[in-house]
Amino acid sequence: MFITLLTDFGTADYFVGAMRGVILARNPQAHIHDITHEIPAHDIQAGAFTLLAAYGEFPERTVHVAVVDPGVGSARRPVLIATPRYFFVGPDNGLFSYVCEREGQWRAFHLTEERFFRQPLSSTFHGRDIFAPVAAAVSRGTPPEAFGPEIMDLTPLAPLAPQRTGANELRAIVIHIDRFGNCITNVARQDLSTEELARGITLTVAGRVIRHFVRFFAEGRADQPFLYWGSAGFLEIALARESAARQLGVQRGQEVLVQIGA
């Protein structure tokens, strides 16, 4: 069974190594893979987006452990989420909002059965003491129902899908800015029909109108922002070899207007 780890812990401290050790002590056959440990500290939305972009590339039945947990030790619930293809383990703070929206079908369980936890239980390191041992138990075939009661609600982030505000208009936002300064919007391919794409789209962000659409970066210019479909399946804004976010003054959460045939 494959287990992935996604955290905001970085790699300078012992945190990730301790989680891996707990998993392997309980399931020496587990295959552990790191998605990233460089999520900005406490940035739940960045963690949610990165998990969304990566989780589907792994084999079915993979257990995805995600820990971006500024509320650790508080009343926020530790959860296990089961979808038809994957398992997710981590804090109920919105971190799994996007994957649940995409998967559609899911069941969530409040992790309350302490027999699965590492003891003594720390109030500040649930990644090691709750999420890692639970992931190991899931990877060994323990059914989700064994870990605690099923819950019907999860803490949401704002819906991932853009709003259609007219026959030819979408209101969207920038949901992520990558290390190159490319601005990733929440407009996915399925949000626009083939006919609408054929008519052409115009995007307005931070007062700048962008019409130029490219297939790959080499078709773009450093002095003209352009649009393209990114590898995560979302409409992105970029400049060739420049940071579009910096040059355009765009921040995450910025509103984007998409007009069709304009």
Summary?
With 262 residues, the chain is α+β, with helices and mostly antiparallel strands. The chain has helices at residues 15-26, 44-54, 97-103, 126-139, 194-199, 244-248; strands spanning 2-7, 31-36, 63-67, 78-82, 87-91, 107-110, 150-151, 163-166, 169-177, 183-188, 201-205, 208-210, 226-229, 234-238, 255-260. A hairpin with a 2-residue loop joins strand 11 (201-205) and strand 12.
Could you walk me through the main structural features you see in this protein, from its secondary elements to its overall organization?
The protein has 262 residues and is of the alpha+beta class. The protein folds into two domains: 2-151, S-adenosyl-l-methionine hydroxide adenosyltransferase, N-terminal (Rossmann fold, 3-Layer(aba) Sandwich), CATH 3.40.50.10790; 163-260, Elongation Factor Tu (Ef-tu), domain 3 (Beta Barrel). The protein contains six helices and 15 strands. Helix 2 runs parallel beside helix 3. The longest helix is centred in the middle third of the chain and has 14 residues, at 126-139. It starts with a strand and ends with a strand.
Spatial shape: elongated
Mean residue pLDDT:
94
Return the CATH architecture of the largest domain: 3-Layer(aba) Sandwich
Helix percent reads: 10-25%
Number of domains: 2
Q: Specify the structural class.
A: alpha+beta
Multimer state = single chain
Computed CA radius of gyration, to the nearest angstrom: 20 Å
Number of helices: 6
* Element pattern in H and E: EHEHEEEHEHEEEEHEEEEHE
